[in-house]
Amino acid sequence: MRRQILLLAALVSTVPSVAASGQPGVAAPYVASRDPAEFEQSLECLTQAIYYEARNQSAEGQRAVAQVVLNRVRHPSYPNSVCGTVFQGSERSTGCQFSFTCDGSMYGYIEPDAWDFAQQIAREALSGSVYRPVGLALNYHSTSIRPYWAPGLTRQAVVGSHIFYRQPDSTEASFTQDPGAEVVVASTAESRPVVQRSAPARGARTQRLRYETAVLEIPVVERPVRYRTVGASRSTASRPAASRPAAARRAGPRVSIESGVRVARGS
What we know:
Layout: H1 2-13, H2 36-54, H3 59-73, H4 82-86, H5 112-126, E1 139-142, E2 154-159, E3 162-166, H6 234-237, E4 254-258, E5 261-265
Antiparallel strand pairs: 1-3, 2-3, 4-5
């Protein structure tokens, strides 16, 4: 009898419904694109979010971050794609939704084992795995800080070193947005190319998703070199000798013989 009760409890715990701990609700399983290219692109972006935001966390901490990303994809206040949500605001130096997308973190070397672990968490989340303790949370921050927006939200859970928040009065009905197409890989200035990296080599560098900006070249105008003879007036010395009137040019020294001595006058 006891064994049957435990088995029934385990089955009930896998159904996405209102959590027994009093949580207002949990997210529905995420339905990723069936297109292999789009799925891999979503996987890349979600892996980056997990890796840079929570690679030093436990599996639960990483699953919590992944759940927030997918919750945002389904909420009308955010972009309707994984990559669009993760890199929202990354074209600015400040104001990015996830700080790693605009603070230079992605230019460092990656840890292959940590990357593979984060990728597995991302794959499970995209395949429908739901991390129930996070519920319908859309925001989180490190326990070491207290951002200005935190008091206006409802605390949902503390997982590892992150505190998760949901919108006040948020329910499953608030998440009405269907996931759309991912960012298309292209090389134009308006695009944000996603570099696939399913099995990074040790010491490989990650590629930052960013908008390319045009480089403005300012032409340098060469000016003629001006010379001024010591003792000469500024009005004539500021012009090249070739542009001065012939009468204004200084004559050479005058040489004369005085009392048998050669005397030069002038300069």
